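Pipeline run #58 for the internal structure catalog. This entry was flagged by the ingest filter as a single-chain record with no existing model, so it goes straight to prediction. Upstream metadata was stripped on purpose; only the residue string is passed forward. Reviewer on rotation: M.T. Logging verbosity set to normal.
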Amino acid sequence: MKTVNSLFLLLLFSVTLSAQQTQKDSTQIYYLIGNDSILRTSLELDEVVLTGVKKDKDDEERKKFLLLQRRVLKVYPYAKTTADNLIMLQKNMAKLKSEKEKKRYYKIVENYLENEFEGQLKKLSRKEGQILVKLIYRQTGKTTYELIKELKSGFKAYVSNNTAKMFDISLKEQYNPFDVTEDFLIESILIIAFNESRLVKQPPANDINYAELSAVWKEKIEKSKAIKAAREANSSN
């Protein structure tokens, strides 16, 4: 994964380090896992309760969820750092007058972050890399492709995206927890982690209304249950 992770260094090279206070969120959210199986219609975000599961299928789904959880907890700090420091970079760059000063400052940051993060990023798997792309979009409001284009060049973004595709990663991937099941699960994992202070909360670039998100997935779950019930009724006739 050395080649792919070097793409993310392009983003981290564009930033300087900062920190943010830990916050908590007690929002409720609806939870869906798998195609039909439901762990619980609603849950308090300070705990995960597994109830009414079919052992074989849902144990497998639970394992998949826990794997996703581990991946999200691992890569979220990189996405947060990217967003935090992208803002810092823009502020510092605005204070510099000449292009020469900006290039010198950029090079200092680049060298520092290469030593700070390169070893850690090389350890990411392909799936963790794709989740990182999604979370970078969540925290910055821009795709990794767009950021590389702005910070480097359109050509660099094009080459980077084509290279990432060789590892089944799209740098143009967005984050949409309202429509994509995996993104919804990622958002659920983040909310729980923020509430438990396992991750430092950073607001997403585009506000996510958790009550609305919860309502959307409640409707999806109810529709899924109705469709399944109708199919079972038809098959028994």
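catalog note: Confidence is low (pLDDT under 50) at residues 2-7, 13-53.
catalog note: The radius of gyration is 20 Å.
status: ready for reviewer M.T.
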